[in-house]
Backbone:
């Protein structure tokens, strides 16, 4: 077990990384909430659906894309359904689609520009184009393992 | 406003980065929850207090270290107080300290090794030492701006 302990250097690197992530996420969530009353999770769903053909995805695919477990996704879609942002439609004998409503389209169209501005301000513009590529490459290495994990 | 839009390359870099960060956080939260019934927020508080002299910090300093707003911190400490993990003690005429209880110490001591193992498995060991340093340097650049922000 002693082998698994983090060295001082690793611990420092980890703490910086996770602190950055947490703070970035908090700030983005605050901006979304204040600007358009959306949570980060709401925005994730709206954004994924708006990128899909006809604003429509299998609920199963949406869950994979958002990395959410079934029950979290179910509650999220239920809440967004209650607010008129998405519909769920049975599709064939087994599948269920999540579909952006007109209200959902309006919400993402309203929220997207200021969210992009905040992403640019807090993250993209802090790094040079080369640094941004570097960050994304490293993130991709970690991500690849996370996505193939259990 | 058009200037703020993200280019395809920037968007790709952003999406990879945020997806990695979100998935990493989810997996760590699942491991904590399953292993010791702690949330990521619980662990953050226990970890910060256990690093402080006598397991004690001003609530105000704890909030700054965790990057939480007052109300979130208040609710978090209330819940942890109800579970016997922390005490809040008035200190002088104005300050309030958060203090690890014996139960709190036991909880962090029990949770820390497997959490460190998971951090190593999911993040630290995926990158070479040089890549880890690189990642932390880039995260630090972004973090510095986030911490001086409003």
Residues:
């Amino acid at each position: 077990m002693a082998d698994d302990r983090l060295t001082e250097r690793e611990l420092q690197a980890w703490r910086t990384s996770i602190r950055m992530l947490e703070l970035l996420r908090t700030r983005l969530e605050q901006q979304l909430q204040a600007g358009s009353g959306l949570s980060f999770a709401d925005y994730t769903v709206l954004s994924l659906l708006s990128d899909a053909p006809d604003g429509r995805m299998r609920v199963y695919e949406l869950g994979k894309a958002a990395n959410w477990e079934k029950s979290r996704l179910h509650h999220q879609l239920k809440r967004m359904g209650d607010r008129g942002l998405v519909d769920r439609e049975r599709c064939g004998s087994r599948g269920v689609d999540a579909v952006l409503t007109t209200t959902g389209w309006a919400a993402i169209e309203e929220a997207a520009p200021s969210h992009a501005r905040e992403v640019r301000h807090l993250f993209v513009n802090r790094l040079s184009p080369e640094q941004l590529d570097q960050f994304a490459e490293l993130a991709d290495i970690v991500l690849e393992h996370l996505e193939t994990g259990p």
